[in-house]
Amino acid sequence: MSDLTPQSEAPTPTTDKITQAARETIYLCNFRVSVDGEWLCLRELNDISLTPDPEPAHEDPKDPIAIERLNLMNMAKLSIKGLIESALNLGRTLDSDYAPLQQFFVVMEHCLKHGLKTKKTFLGQNKSFWGPLELVEKLTPEAGEITASVKDLPGLKTPLGRGRAWLRLALMQKKLSDYMKTIINRKDLLSEFYEPNALMMEEEGAVIAGLLVGLNVIDANLCMKGEDLDSQVGVIDFSMYLKDGGHSSKSTEGDGQITAILDQKNYVEELNRHLSASVNNLQAKVDALEKSNTKLTEELAVANNRIITLQEEVERVKEESSYLVESSRKASRPDGTADGQVLGETRKQLKEETQLRLDVEKELEVQIGMRQEMELSMKMLEKDICEKHDALVELRQQLDDMRRLNHELSHKSQSSESSVKQKHEIISRLEEKTNQMAATIKQLENSEKDVVKQARNLNSAAGKLLQKQQ
Questions:
Q1: The 3-state secondary structure of the chain, one letter per residue
Q2: Residue 426, class by beta-carbon neighbours within 10 Å (0-12 exposed, 13-18 middle, 19+ buried)?
Q3: Of the candidates 157, 155, 149, which has an alpha carbon nearest to the alpha carbon of residue 225?
Q4: Are 381 and 299 in contact (CB under 8 A)?
Q5: Cα(372)–Cα(300) distance, integer angstroms
Q6: I want to staple 234 with a disulfide (CB 3.0 to 4.6 A). Which of 68, 106, 349, 419 is the partner?
Q7: pLDDT per residue over 148-192, tens digit each?
Q8: pTM of the model
């Protein structure tokens, strides 16, 4: 039983094959999705240790922004290469439903979004690469036709949709590489839209612009009238770029388990990203409702003050009316000394004050009705805020559950990888034992042949001796 224990001191042919296959495979074990879902960050292949090191390596930590640029450039290389090869093998004009072409646009969208400066609006933060693409019209007059066509397309309501339509039209015109080189060379204009360490501001952007020249060999006919470019979710499908390594057939089951766990992890992270975006949207709505609630409270206070003022005016009018009525009664007595002219003026003034009182009472009723409506709207608004708050609490609880599930899946993935590694080492030991037993069997067969040959020689010699004696 001691011979079956895994030993990792010396590399075996099987481990060499596994190492070679791993070097030809894109590893996605250390990638993350940002909160706003703008880009994906992958771990570099050089950072993955394929063989155990006897001593820990002392390397300086790399800049995460530089790693993001390098990963995006590598994804752009893979998508452009895969699109050109598949298009040439297909041998026909590409349409909007072609999967490699869709993935190319998603990768280009992530490249253009990297390092964009955030613009704050009333509804939250906004990032769009439509602004840098509009610069092409100023730098290259022939690009004005594409910009005008994008602005005239029906159904495009957001800058993101216009930017996606611009990329498709530039690809059909076979000018995408030229336009990208034009704006990359003017970093003084791009600095208005991008951070200094963005992909478009560094040499990786120039490399991607050079790679886009190869797309001039393909023909694309894309119809954008019925396509919803505003609400599409750009997610990179890494399964299109994964290669099949040279693993042993006996480890297929363990690799399938790791793949399933990674798929579950990717799904949970994508769901986590959507929940985070929903929480942010609900938080923005709650803030807007709180601002509206404050404004309505102020308007209600003003209306209450107005009602109090009107009530005071009504009381004053009542007192004046009672005084005028009393004066008119005194003037109507037989023993009174007032003449008819004073009595007429008093009655006229009484009529005017009565009309003013009716107007004030009518306005008071209107203000009371408005106050009741405002109180009703305040109650409805408070109810809506309570419902939004409950939904926000529930979504945050779901987000915490997703994070906990993601953590459990990560531990499960690590344990599965360790078990598969132990199985590989046991398989390599068994293969060595099998080779040794095969060599021993071959030696026994050779010795058996030699014994048979000697027996035949002895038989022939014995026969000759018998013949001589006879």
A1: CHHHCCCCCCCCHHHHHHHHHHHCCCCCCCCEECCCCCCEECCCHHHCCCCCCCCCCCCCCCCHHHHHHHHHHHHHHHHHHHHHHHHHHHCCCECCCCHHHHHHHHHHHHHHHCCECCEEECCEEECCCHHHHHHHHHHCHHHHHHHHHHHHCCCCCCHHHHHHHHHHHHHHHCCHHHHHHHHHCCHHHHCCCECCCCHHHCHHHHHHHHHHHHHHHCCECCCCCCCCCCCCCCCCCHHHCCCCCCCCHHHHHHHHHHHHHHHHHHHHHHHHHHHHHHHHHHHHHHHHHHHHHHHHHHHHHHHHHHHHHHHHHHHHHHHHHHHHHHHHHHHHCCCCCCCHHHHHHHHHHHHHHHHHHHHHHHHHHHHHHHHHHHHHHHHHHHHHHHHHHHHHHHHHHHHHHHHHHHHHHHHHHHHHHHHHHHHHHHHHHHHHHHHHHHHHHHHHHHHHHHHHHHHHHHHHHHHHHHHHHC
A2: middle
A3: 155
A4: no
A5: 10
A6: 106
A7: 888 888 878 888 888 888 998 888 888 888 899 988 988 888 888
A8: 0.42
| Amino acid (1-letter code) at residue 396 | R
